[in-house]
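Annotated sample (chain length 508).
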Amino acid sequence: MSDPARQIGEAGNDDSGGLYREAPGNIEAEQALLGAILVNNDAYYRVSDFLKPGHLHEPLHRKIFEVAGDIIRMGKTANPVTIKTFLPADEKVGDMTVAQYLARLAAEAVNIINAEDYGRAIYDLALRRSLITIGEDMVNIAYDAPLDMPPQNQIEDAERRLFELAETGRYDGGFQAFNDAVALAIDMAGAAYQRDGGLSGISTGISQLDGRMGGLQSSDLIILAGRPGMGKTSLATNIAYNIAKAYQPEVQADGSTKAVNGGVVGFYSLEMSSEQLATRIISEQTEISSSKIRRGEISEADFELLVGCSQEMQKIPFYIDQTGGISIAQLAARARRLKRQRGLDLLVVDYVQLMTGSKKAGENRVQEITEITTGLKALGKELNVPIIALSQLSRQVENRDDKRPQLSDLRESGSIEQDADVVLFVYREEYYVKNTEPRRTPEEIASDIKTEEYMRWEEKMTKVKGMADVIIAKQRHGPTGTVTLGFQAEYTRFSDLADNSYLQYSHE
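Output written by the structure step:
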């Protein structure tokens, strides 16, 4: 068969030692695929889930594939007669018109059984062309050395583009057909039906919290905030460990791995070292006080328990990055790398105020926090994972009689509140009640004498001891409200309450 479309490429060939190289493409594979589609439209559905018009190298072939796809999706037949109407009639392909070229494609079509193989070959070549573009851009920018793009930024930009190419095979997003969105929603409902607990998101391991939130939803930015001492890091650690421990992978048809339950967790610990974080988790799992672990005040039986727990923990997909003062760009680059190399289902950042932005000239802290939270939200959507970002609350909480936090208490709150899909506050009344303990004289303590004031305090302390409220102050796709959990301070552990007896108490 004559190959008029190839004439476009042949004009640039020379034998001068390879000074000019063509971008990789396979015109014959494109012709064979288009011919198969024109003869039997079923061939289109063998490739339409991964092959897009932009993946074809020859512009005319892109247009033919796009028009054929539109016609087929409308339930009509795509053939040389129906397609030629939507292509420029006066365009020439070598010495043929477009109509004659379409007829030639159909006449010399091969069996549609090979259609998917041709589609894969075309797709792979498109990825190679994209890699060439990224490589050329890297070289050109490195040579130019622009002032507004230092080498570290160039590396992060290249990593981002390579990650997007590896994950989706495309650079930019675009409008998505509503029927595709509906299909995704149905798939999510199906996954929730099959997942343990019937949750649409990843289970936190705390059933009362899951009941309100439906688990952690993909691409959500979840802000977990509280004053110092409330236990926000403990709650984040508990949730992260529960998810990593419950991880059950399943190999998909395309060879990739997907979490059926639980997930791979990436934890950015900007405040604590990885050893401190590990100690907290070990304390929670073994019920040995972390202070005793740090001081070495443990028995031989306790030590054996610690060793057994540590061996179990080494098997779970829990990854810690303890770099302090990390920038949002560095965090994003490392998260992409983790997902590419080991997978990623949940990202935790402890905490937002310890991160840095790009530090552009004249930028204040509020603008920097805005850049960070916007970047975290964009990263969650890009990686399609939930992100739990911890945040401090302003001191104005301490100046109120009612110390329950509100959205307005978030530090640099405008951007944090706006970008978050879910805002959770951790509030432990026990912390504040404990600090109001009436003073007793040494004689009263020795004789165990309790004043009326002390007895009132003790009664109040009994009501709130070992309990914590997780206040859902904002949730885009669910109800707000308060979930009361149990909290064991010595083991830094949050858990579901054994019963609902706490409802008899009203927090004063």
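Annotation: The chain has 20 helices and 13 strands.
Annotation: The two ends are 87 Å apart (CA to CA).
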